[in-house]
Structures are given as C-alpha cells and as structure tokens.
Amino acid sequence: MSLVTDEKAENLFDSYQDASSGPFQLLWDPFITFIIIAALSLVIYEGVFRSEVFHPFYYYARTSQWGRLIVRPSIIWGLMGSSFLFFRTLLWLWYRPSAAARVADAPSLTVIIPAYNEGPMVEKSIDSVAAAEYPREKLEIVVVDDGSRDDTWKYITRAALRYPGLVKPVRFPKNRGKRAALEEGFLRAGGEIAVTIDSDSVIEQSALLAIVGPFRNPRVGAVAGKVAVYNKDEGIVPRMLHVRYILSFDFLRAAQSTYGAVYCCPGALSAYRIAVVREVMEPWMKQTFLGEPCTYGEDRSMTNFMLSRGYDTVYQRTAVVHTVAPDTYRKMTRMFLRWERSYIKEELRLFTILWRRPLLSRLITLIDVVVRNMRFPVSYAVLGLFAVMCVHDPATILRLLLAIGLMSFLNVLYYLRSERSWRFLYGILYSYFSAFTLFWIFPYALFTIRSRSWMTR
User: Fold this and answer.
1) pLDDT band at 292; cut points 50, 70, 90
2) How far, in Å, CA of 374 to CA of 77, rounded?
3) How far apart are CA 29 and CA 331, in angstroms?
4) Going along 282-435, which residue ranges are E strands?
5) Less Cβ around it within 10 Å: N or C end of the chain?
6) What pLDDT band is residue 67 in, cutting at 50, 70 and 90?
C-alpha cells in the first residue's frame, strides 16, 4: 500500500534531493528555514499569549481540581519544550559535517560486523564495505558470526574467500549476544579506528572516509553516521520509519553534535578510537542494571563511556548507511521496546556523566535531559485528561487530532530541508500512528526494564 502511486509525484522533490548548487538550492534553504522559524514562533506565541485557543481544555482545567493539577505543569513544560526546540533549531542550522579524510591521510581502520541469523544480508553488508573508497592496505573487516542457527556462516565464508586478506571471519559455537560479538571484534582490531556496522546494513562508498574525518580533532572519541532505511519502499512501516530515522539523525544528532554530546552513536554505523574502547571495554562488558547483566543497548552504553572519559561524540551527516527496518507492527514494537529499555538505563547514566562535561555542553545537555524526560509524565497525564474530556465533549478528539497534525507538520519541515522528498507525508502519518498505537511502549518498557532478551528482528 502506498500513499503516492504516481511515479512523477515520487520524483517531484527527489529530483532536487542531491542538488548542491543552482537557483533552487539558493532559494530552498532560506525558504524552509523561514517557514520553520515562523512555525516555531507561532507555537510559542500561541502557548504564551493565546492559551485559550483550545478553550474547552482550559475551561475544564479551571473548573476541575485534576484539570488544574495537570494543565498548569503541562503549560510550563510546553513553553520550555517549545523554547528549547527553537534553540535546538538554531544549533541544527549551525551544524556542519567535518571534511572527509583524504586517502593519503586516512588512519588504519577496522570494520566490525556482528551477525546473528542474518542470512544473505550479511554478505551485502561485507560487499558494501569492501567496495568503499578506502585504501585497502589500511582496511580490515572482522565479521563475527554470533552462533547463528541459519546459513549466515555460509555467506560470511563465501565473502571471506572473495576478499582474501581483507575479511577475517570469526564464528562463535553458540550465541553469546551482540556485545560479546563486538568485544571479539574490538580485541582483534588492528586499526586506530574501529567502525561498527550492523549485519543488516550497507554503507555508501564514501562512508568510511567520511566517518573517520572528525577524528582529526583529538577531543573526538566517537562518531555517529547517518542512518537511512534500506527497504523504505517495502510497505508503510518502513516508509514511516525512514522519515523518523532521518529526523532522528539529521535534526536531533546534528544539533547535539554542535556541543559535542551525541547521546547515541548507533550500531548501524559508528566509529570509535580503539585505544579508548579498550580502556572501557571491561566495565562495558560487565555492565549491570538492577543486578541484571545488560545484554542490549550496547551502542548507547559505549557512547556514554566515551562521554564519561571526557571525549566528544559527534555526528557525521556525510557518512551514510542504509539499514533494514522492521516491516510489520510487531517487529517495530520489539525494536522500540529494546530502544526504550536502553534509553531508560542509559539516560540515568547520562545524568551522572553530564556534570563532567565542559560548562556549555553541560548546561545544554542538562536542559535537554530535563525537557525530554518531563514529556513522559506530562504527556500521559494530558492523554488521560483528554480521555475524560472526550466523554463530556466528543469534539475534543477533533482538537487533539488538529494538535497532532500541526506538530507533525512542523516536524516534517525539518525532514523537507534535509531530504526534499514527497516522503514527508509518511512523517505526518507516523505522528498519528504513534499517538494511537505506540503510546504503551514506554510504560511497558519501564515495567519490564530487567528483561535480558536481545529481541532482534
């Protein structure tokens, strides 16, 4: 099923996507930037000066004790969130990727690919690395089969035979988990920099030279690549997730990169200083939470270890990887549950780490942590209030739908500036989809936080 079936419509924006010069490029950025700033200003203005815009909502708040307890904190959080979003937008506009490394200056590099029941996709991942623009004498690829029960090992060994001396295959007799597979790769790494790539992902040819570029700065300990969806044309779920991924990286991580604190360098594509990784590998492998070993969230955990050692973590927009996204609701919820459990554990760690950051980074990170995490109690309280109000006034649901639509439109403006694609429509659809079908994910993740399941796709 597709929202847009006309091939001409599909190319309407995509034809401009890679343009880097010309009159369209000169006009597009200022135009979208103006629209974003204007929309943000309107959100703040409505929140501060025209709070009666949803009159029944505020009337109920004034006449109900529970309404007063919920709405007033919600207004404060809304204003804080809108103001910080405005500030984050300025950081996003300020962000610039680092220059890619030159072939002559490229550091020695080890690419680590952990694989578990991946089948033929792991071979595509290896092929993409082998085809990347990087001096062959400075590159090695360590592929770890984490006790797969399918034919993954066949594809790994076939690739190793095709690239003798380049691909180093490793096989665990039984499944030990992704963290153990990465540890094996880190221990075997002979490069100055280690790049981790998921076995269901393929990188673009320029990705390796791009992702090692930021390491010219000795303060940089880890670099996050840009993640797009490999199977974005294979159903509504991957199409929606593609927009979500682009916003998560090209907006959120771009803004975080300006103050050197990208909170999660993703497993799909990240790079680390191997010397620092080996310093933190023991506590990383032995990490526990509430007495249980941590068996997932290894990417965000390693990012936190880098920040705790005083290194910056940054985002490199020009290092692009395409990863297979879930194509069903069930698979998507399993992925989100894994992410949310990792988020809860590592967000608590981040709060203890941020105090060691430089003053400006510390201040911005602190505000970000507070605003981001206030959204959980506020949003669930407001959702409950809306449910009560809908009983008394069914028209309230229309106001809720309107509010979701307005905010989703604001979000897709960021996507449009980066991608210039008709796919922004799926970003609006995702906002409604997540509001009504994914609201249970965080509470369930919180109450099952001690689960040790890897929950792979």
Assistant:
1) confident
2) 7
3) 36
4) 288-289, 292-293, 312-323
5) N
6) low
Residue 14 has pLDDT above 90, yes or no: no
User: Residues 121-151: pLDDT tens digits?
Assistant: 999 999 999 999 999 999 999 999 999 999 9
Contacts with 180 (C-beta within 8 Å, 6 or more apart), sequence order: 146, 172, 285
Q: Measure the CA–CA gap between 436 and 440, rounded to whole angstroms.
A: 9
Dihedral angle over CA of 20, 22, 27, 32, nearest 10: -20
Residue 30 makes CB contacts below 8 A (sequence gap 6+) with none
Residues in the chain: 457
Cβ 143 vs Cβ 156: under 8 Å: yes
Q: What is the mean pLDDT of residues 360-387?
A: 84
* CA dist., res. 400 & res. 351, Å (int): 33
Determine how many CB atoms are found less than 10 A away from the CB of residue 227.
26
User: What is the pTM for the complete model shown?
Assistant: 0.86
pLDDT of residue 17: 42
**Six-digit token string for 35:** 């629209």
Asked whether 100 and 225 are in contact (CB, 8 A), the reply is: no
Q: What are phi and psi of 187, to 5 degrees?
A: -65, -35
Q: Which of 340, 327, 341 is nearest to 241 (CA)?
A: 327
Domains of the chain: 7-96+362-447 (no CATH), 103-357 (3.90.550.10)
Specify the residue for token string 């994914």: 438
Instruction: Read off φ and ψ for residue 195, nearest 5 degrees.
Output: -110, 130
Integer Rg of the chain from CA: 23
Place of tokens 């594509």: 269
Within a 10 A sphere around the Cβ of 97, how many other Cβ atoms? Answer: 17
Beta-carbon contacts of residue 252 (< 8 Å; ≥ 6 apart): 88
In this structure, what token pair is assigned to residue 305? 């270890």
Look at 20 and 308; give whichever has higher pLDDT.
308
Give me the amino acid identity at 31.
Answer: F
Task: Let me know the angle formed at the C-alpha of 392 by 391 and 397, rounded to the nearest 5 degrees.
Answer: 65
Q: How confident is the model at residue 6 (pLDDT cuts 50, 70, 90)?
A: very low
pLDDT in tens, 402-428: 878 888 888 888 888 888 888 889 999
Q: What is the pLDDT of residue 57?
A: 57
